[in-house]
């Protein structure tokens, strides 16, 4: 595999505990050589299946290229990438507060004032994505993280896609997305029905 992934910084780090596991890899807490806590998403490329490895590498390139362009207080910060011995590492801002899903599990129903504060930030993050023609496609409780200060961060852009135009109705028919990405219980009906979807979904 040629190294098409852009390395923002030469980050030296030590692997800590697992923060989460998903369909596309494992996220670890890392400590850098300068003492910074970071989140590191690692994906192993199976060298025994070159075609699958190439496809996975292409998907990761898309995720990294997208993350590089996003800078917003409610979007997880991107720090860089590396490829070493068939393992792709994506370095991101560490968010110690946990997910909204875990917050609800720990504390129960949220007060209306807190819920309104979180919802406003989620919508601001999504509005920023849409302004940049990006649809997340897997927005759910576990992909909405909370900083200790109460700031919401949207994470996990493995399923995200950048549209070629802003207005779905102005797109050609090829722009109507029909592939199923995301988590079923969090999907819009038109996604599950495969009837075509865009930003509103």
UniProtKB/TrEMBL annotation:
Protein name: Mitogen-activated protein kinase kinase kinase 19
Pfam families assigned: Pkinase (PF00069)
Keyword Kinase: yes
Domain Protein kinase: 13-201
UniProt xrefs under PANTHER family: MITOGEN-ACTIVATED PROTEIN KINASE KINASE KINASE 19-RELATED (PTHR11584:SF369), SERINE/THREONINE PROTEIN KINASE (PTHR11584)
Native species: Iconisemion striatum
Annotated positions binding ATP: 41
SUPFAM superfamilies registered for this protein in UniProt: Protein kinase-like (PK-like)
Family annotation (SMART domains): S_TKc
GO biological process: intracellular signal transduction
GO molecular function per UniProt: ATP binding; protein serine/threonine kinase activity
Keywords: ATP-binding, Kinase, Nucleotide-binding, Serine/threonine-protein kinase, Transferase
Family: Belongs to the protein kinase superfamily.
């Amino acid at each position: 595999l040629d190294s098409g992934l852009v390395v923002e910084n030469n980050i030296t780090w030590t692997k800590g505990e697992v923060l989460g596991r998903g369909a596309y890899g494992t996220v670890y807490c890392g400590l850098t050589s300068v003492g910074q806590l970071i989140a590191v998403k690692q994906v192993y490329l199976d060298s025994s299946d070159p075609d699958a490895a190439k496809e996975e590498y292409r998907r990761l390139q898309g995720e990294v290229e997208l993350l590089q362009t996003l800078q917003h207080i409610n979007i997880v910060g991107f720090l860089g990438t590396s490829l070493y011995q068939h393992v792709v590492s994506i370095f991101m801002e560490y968010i110690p507060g946990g997910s909204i899903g875990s917050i609800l599990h720990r504390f129960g129903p949220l007060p209306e004032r807190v819920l309104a504060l979180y919802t406003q930030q989620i919508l601001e993050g999504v509005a920023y994505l849409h302004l940049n023609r990006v649809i997340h496609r897997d927005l759910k409780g576990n992909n909405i993280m909370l900083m200790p200060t109460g700031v919401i961060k949207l994470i996990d852009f493995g399923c995200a896609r950048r549209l070629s135009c802003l207005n779905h109705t102005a797109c050609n028919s090829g722009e109507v997305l029909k592939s199923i990405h995301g988590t079923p219980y969090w999907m819009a009906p038109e996604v599950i029905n495969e009837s075509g979807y865009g930003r509103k979904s």
